[in-house]
Amino acid sequence: MSLTPRWIYAFIVASCCALLGYALYTQYVDGLHPCPLCITQRAFFVLIALVALIALITNPHQKGRYVATAFMLLSSIAGGSVAYRQVWLQSLPPDQVPACGPSLEYMFSNLPFGEAFSTLMLGDGNCAEVVWTLFGLSMPNWSMFAFIGLGLAAIASALPMIKR
């Protein structure tokens, strides 16, 4: 069995599903409510998984692999940036943390889309709260590492030395 782009796409899809599954587990079983930045990170994991799934199903040639890689890499960079923003918010002293904002449902039902979207991307005081850690790192830290790994896997899927 040799390493092919399809195996890498399958790995990316499985990794994203596992990450999203654990996020849903912590939400519905452990009772950890996601903040706006957490939800945004989930959206980027879904986007990466969808692109990888389409590439897995269609098995594109070299140009298609470059396009899939570009979309997955851009999504990984964007998701990693959102995770980094949350890590930064969590590192702020308590007196510098922004005030907690309205719920996501309220923002999208009562604010113009542009304002709700910018509020979602910037995060608020809810995003600065550390409610879960593993080996001393919060969930956004681990998400940032996951986005880096997914980006590297996406790059590997487009390398010409990977056999088709």
TrEMBL record:
It comes from the Bacteria. It is found in: Cell membrane. Signal peptide: none annotated. Keywords: Cell membrane, Chaperone, Disulfide bond, Electron transport, Membrane, Oxidoreductase, Redox-active center, Transmembrane, Transmembrane helix, Transport. The keyword Cell cycle does not apply. InterPro entries: DiS_bond_form_DsbB/BdbC, Disulphide_bond_form_DsbB, DsbB. The keyword Kinase does not apply. Residues 26-43 are periplasmic. It is a multi-pass membrane protein. Residues 1-8, 61-66, 161-164 are cytoplasmic. It holds the Pfam family DsbB. The chain crosses the membrane at residues 7-27, 39-59, 66-84, 142-162. Disulfide bonds join 35-38. Required for disulfide bond formation in some periplasmic proteins. Acts by oxidizing the DsbA protein. HAMAP family: DsbB (MF_00286). Belongs to the DsbB family. This is Disulfide bond formation protein B. It comes from Zhongshania aquimaris.
